[in-house]
Amino acid sequence: MILDQYYLSCLSHASYMVADEATKVAAVVDPQRDIDQYLKDAAAKGLKIKYVILTHFHADFLAGHIELRDRAGAEIVMAKRAQAEFAVTKVGNGDRIVLGSGVTLEFLETPGHTPEGLSVLVYDNAKDPKTPYAVLTGDTLFVGDVGRPDLLASIGVTADELADMLYDSIHGKILPLADSVLVYPAHGAGSMCGKNLGQELHSTMGEQRKFNYALRPMSREDFKAIVTADQPEAPDYFVHSAILNRQERPVLEKTMSDSIRPIPLDEVRKMAQAGAQLLDVREGIDYAGSHLAGSINIALKGKYATWAGSMLSHKVPIVVIGEDDQVDEAVVRLGRIGFDNVAGVLDGGMMALENRPELQRKVERITAQALADMMDAGDKVTVLDVRTEKEHEAGHIEGSMNVPLTHLEESLAKLPKSGRLVVHCEGGYRSSIAAGLLLNHGFGNVLDLVGGYKAWAASQLPVAVG
């Protein structure tokens, strides 16, 4: 048996390829949209990808089921509740797909995170044809958590009803599995599909029974209360991606070919005046040193796709600004979340601005000690913390104003236009996004705190909690 895990850290996303070594028949489960790695590995091992299985309609990324169908001829498999525009082979509890004499897949309908939730039991028949070797749980069970039922309550199904479904799925389908069964979820730590996901990329049912808070013995009502409490705010693009995953749509290869065209600077400026979004994907320090006026900085480092999906619109053209080795990756990673509205890239990158100083802007940066000295001197300064409320409550610069980055644009009227405005986050990634946004909205004296709150605390400067 072949069971390979593919982990995409920028989206905290795990996908899988399962195959029978004798027949060479393979199935890919929850693929990312750029599918070359699956095709390359299948070719290297002589495998035929016959099935592509979606455990549900994902919200945090656009899956590669359409791509694998078109390029590999794979048959799309989903649970009976799935309602899609494309042809789907629907499976229910106990249905099986035999990849070969050595490997069998059995399906469990596990609604709760979404109505069409599906888990896949993997049998290694050579080892034990009666006890599953592993379970691919999608977003039903994570390492340390379960899928949140409040994320995308579908039309006609409330979050409360989904929580009821999740309780039944966990207690009726998942918990009866043997301790030895390996648990392979669709997400790891950092995913917004749960609140307490562990760093490990797989586990066992025995370990989860011991350590997963949501699997402890409790009543249905207690379960529903605990799994819905303190969930992180979902990025705005989740609804968009969930809808696209149901639709017949263009493949990434096609949308990419339309997105990498170089656009001259003057045309980019005209597009920006007409409302296009200018996305600078360089490191924050490079953006601070010089950037095209009107652009926003979301660096490729870190949770680029998540923040791009949160701060940008999928309805308005995007022009990417970056180095030659960055722009292709930037466009692919936008495509992974269904942002196919990239119109092109700035021809020449920042070199196009070399003789156009009137089009360049900078973001002033300030160290933690310099900010402390400024505050001690009584200078007029507003400290803006763009972390989440939970982060701010755990520790913050005394007197700072907390506006989470995802709510900054709707809160601009609350911010002072006079005096210095020092913006910070935990380490500097989000504050660079915020600084560009503030400059674009006419805040003139914006400074970015180098190293963010971490640098302030490490400098042993005064902090407050609560």
Describe this structure in words.
This protein has 466 residues and is α/β, with parallel strands linked by helices. It folds into three domains: 239 residues, Ribonuclease Z/Hydroxyacylglutathione hydrolase-like (Metallo-beta-lactamase, Chain A, 4-Layer Sandwich); 111 residues, 3-Layer(aba) Sandwich (Oxidized Rhodanese, domain 1); 101 residues, Oxidized Rhodanese, domain 1 (3-Layer(aba) Sandwich), CATH 3.40.250.10. 29% of the residues lie in helices and 24% in strands. It has a six-stranded mixed beta sheet with strand order 1-2-3-4-5-6, covered by helices on one side. Helix 1 links the parallel strand 3 and strand 4. It is globular and about 75 Å long. The chain starts with a strand and ends with a strand. The mean pLDDT is 95.
